[in-house]
Amino acid sequence: MLRKKLLLIGLSILLLIVGCEQLLDADVTAPTVVISYPSNGNILTDPTIVRADATDDTGIESITFLINGIEVFTDTESPYEYEWDVCVSGMGTTPTITVKATDSAGNAGQSEVFSFTIDASYDCESVCGGVKVVDNCGTCDADATNDCTADCNGEYGGTASLDD
């Protein structure tokens, strides 16, 4: 009976030591994450792929992209990328992007805040940064040479003509 108690006490001490050792070795280091593209301060004129690089000693679980502090996309596989439709932000705005990385132990790291100026809008076919415009006859195209003309009454696309 005494032998069993000593054995149980020994096992309890061993479990306590192993348990404490695991607590001491727990990962408490946050991953590092940087925005690798585009460069901070750029003027963006069309949809842009935002790229992030992250490193950690235990592995990256996920990368979350935030625009103006709002989570817009989470990526779980390298390369970490987000296709940003900059036109959503609006012409002349200066949105910010931050990227957060979470490692497999639940630690989180955050990139610097990057700011951009948006110089893009949707064209007449709803293409961000597109070049198509609607001519006077309501045609949406990128060919300025085929714009319609006004008839003799000043009506674009009209059929009125001067007779002799």
Structure characterization notes:
With 164 residues, the chain is an alpha+beta fold. 14% of the residues lie in helices and 33% in strands. It has one helix and twelve strands. It has one helix at 2-24, and strands at 32-37, 43-44, 48-55, 60-67, 70-75, 80-84, 96-103, 108-110, 114-115, 117-118, 133-134, 140-141. Strands 4, 5, 7, 8 and 9 form a five-stranded antiparallel sheet that branches. A three-stranded antiparallel sheet has the order 1-3-6, with no helix packed on it. It has a two-stranded parallel sheet with strand order 2-10. β4 (60-67) and β5 (70-75) form a beta hairpin. It is rod-shaped and about 115 Å long.
Structure summarized in a few sentences:
With 164 residues, the protein is α+β, with helices and mostly antiparallel strands.
Topology summary:
Blueprint: H1 2-24, E1 32-37, E2 43-44, E3 48-55, E4 60-67, E5 70-75, E6 80-84, E7 96-103, E8 108-110, E9 114-115, E10 117-118, E11 133-134, E12 140-141
Parallel strand pairs: 2-10
Antiparallel strand pairs: 1-3, 3-6, 4-5, 4-7, 7-8, 7-9, 11-12
